[in-house]
Amino acid sequence: METKNILVVGGAGYIGSHQVKMLADNDYNVVVYDNLSTGYKDLITVDDFVKGDLKDKNKLRKTIKSYDIDAVMHFAAFIEVSESVEKPGKYYKNNVSNVINLLNVMVETGVKYFIFSSTAAVYGEPKKVPITEDQFLKPINPYGRSKYIVEQILKDYDKAHDLKYTCFRYFNASGADDSGKIGEKHKPETHLIPLVLKTALGERDKIYIFGTDYDTRDGSCIRDFVHVNDLAKVHMRGLERLFNGEKSEVFNLGTGKGYSVKEIINTAKEITGIDFAVEEAERREGDPARLIADSSKAREILNWEPQYDLEDIIRTAWNWHKKESEDKF
After folding, report:
1. Which of 212, 235, 253 is the last residue of a domain?
2. What is the pTM (predicted TM-score) of this model?
3. Mean pLDDT of the chain
4. What is the pLDDT of residue 324?
5. Quick one: average pLDDT of 116-129?
6. How many Cα neighbours within 13 Å face the side chain of 133?
7. Active-site residue (options: 14, 33, 113, 143)
8. In 3D, which of 167, 185, 189 has the Cα closest to residue 228?
9. Known catalytic residue: 40?
10. How many CB atoms lie within 10 A of CB 107?
11. Which of 54, 66, 67, 146 is nearest to 104 (CA)?
12. 268: in domain
């Protein structure tokens, strides 16, 4: 089969960089397109890198044509919920307007396949858990709404331009590549597992548990954590499905298990061997007790089964964060 050329926008970010590595490891030709506003050049593991912004249609057009791109994978969104509430314009401009720019250039240049990283935030406060794809979509913040809007736009582009897409609504991406060469890197960091491990490393004084009186098995919130390489693998299968002529589709991605905040902290203490400080605090507004994915659709259609458990997630993340901490000195 002819080798496909894949443009990964946001390929210098956390999930994008893992996707780039896995595509390259599976003999795809990969081109990273990233403006490095939140990404890092040292996370890019391939040679072909274009520093560019999605608002720059001329550079996008030139990149797609010069590399003869067959499909585009999008990981270039802003993702901080609290910031989206404070700066909705920033989020709608990047997460919606810039995606429209990209889609228009794709239509113009004849690229027919698009993988979109969506989010569980499109569901808002779910009516039932585990969450299935057919639940009513009612996002409760600009970040979630920006992803919801793009999902609707993609339906219209499919109908008007035969642009085929796969949307992946994932829950909590976590962990790091087994090689230790790439991992989770955000400024500022807001995700639970990196914050826990940074506390173990002494980069933070303590980790907070926001709410211990939820109706869960140990009183703390439960979330669905899925390893970043499990995500990259299923994204690749979604891409291959489009190349095989299948229709556009939307999939939830999660393990379906759910781990509590306390379980994350206790597992991190076991793996690191460090008894770091933990403080219980009041609930945060808008935090549901349980958010767990029903990923049976992805398991059935894409033959996907997550390979990493919680211990694997924290072990790979710990190896990465230790390396990052050592590299600072």
Report:
1. 253
2. 0.96
3. 95
4. 85
5. 92
6. 17
7. 143
8. 185
9. no
10. 15
11. 54
12. yes
